[in-house]
């Protein structure tokens, strides 16, 4: 049974409607009555993210990226400056985060670059804000993309690896269709069927639903 104290708030931001998730434990507060949490994929408007959370009594302890595309990092630098939180991603995504061509921001005249403070390997356990996440290396949409699995909360932050009855695009620099499908089958589809999937775009789904109805993965 999922821990009901673990809550997930979502802001959908930016030109392509990117989901920015904030995960926190409702039952835990610090000495000042603040609730601490982990922020995933600061898509855009770092100050808006910070102000919204601060007004509600939240503190960002860590910022994590599922991957480094422009629509997932647009608010990162401003949010890091305001919150003081460190930024983490998979070790193989560092180059994309710091290259405006690879992260596609050049295409939109943005020239975005972010420098991760922390990098992770497949299987690493991240403990922050009283929460625990397991890093699942899921290349395909990008060469260093990853997902974050919270066993206690029975959910996975999936970025652009897996969507509701769809998958991430593989026509970008560093993308690979075969790697993406292998990642979904070998990493995500081995999670319990009732695991809730929080994707980078669109609505939530479940591992069980995608195993049965996702046309891009069936028969692989």
Automatic annotation (TrEMBL):
Entry keyword annotation includes Metal-binding: yes
- SMART domains under this entry? Lactamase_B
Q: Which GO terms describe its molecular function?
A: hydrolase activity; metal ion binding
Q: Which InterPro entries does this one have? A: MBL_Glyoxalase_II (IPR051453), Metallo-B-lactamas (IPR001279), RibonucZ/Hydroxyglut_hydro (IPR036866)
- Taken from the record, one Pfam family name reads Lactamase_B
Give the record's keywords alphabetically.
Hydrolase, Metal-binding, Zinc
Q: Does the keyword Metal-binding apply?
A: yes
Q: Report the residue ranges that make up the Metallo-beta-lactamase domain in this protein.
A: 17-201
Q: Per its Swiss-Prot or TrEMBL entry, what cofactor is needed?
A: Zn(2+)
The molecule here is called Metallo-beta-lactamase family protein
């Amino acid at each position: 049974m999922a821990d009901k104290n673990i809550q997930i708030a979502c802001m959908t931001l930016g030109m392509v409607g990117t989901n920015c998730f904030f995960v926190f434990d409702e039952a835990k507060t610090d000495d000042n009555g603040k609730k601490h949490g982990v922020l995933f994929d600061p898509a855009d408007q770092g100050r808006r993210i910070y102000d919204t959370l601060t007004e509600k009594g939240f503190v960002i302890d860590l910022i994590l990226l599922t991957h480094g595309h422009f629509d997932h990092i647009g608010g990162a630098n401003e949010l890091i400056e305001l919150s003081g939180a460190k930024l983490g991603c998979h070790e193989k995504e560092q180059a994309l985060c710091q290259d405006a061509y690879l992260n596609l921001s050049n295409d939109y005249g943005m020239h975005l670059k972010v420098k991760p403070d922390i990098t992770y390997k497949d299987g690493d356990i991240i403990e922050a804000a009283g929460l625990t996440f397991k890093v699942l290396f899921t290349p395909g949409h990008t060469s260093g993309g990853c997902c974050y699995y919270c066993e206690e909360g029975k959910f996975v932050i999936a970025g652009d690896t897996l969507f509701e009855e769809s998958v991430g695009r593989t026509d970008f620099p560093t993308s690979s269709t075969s790697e993406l499908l292998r990642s979904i089958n070998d990493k995500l589809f081995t999670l319990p069927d009732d695991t809730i999937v929080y994707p980078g775009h669109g609505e939530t789904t479940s591992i069980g639903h995608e195993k049965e109805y996702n046309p891009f993965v069936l028969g692989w």
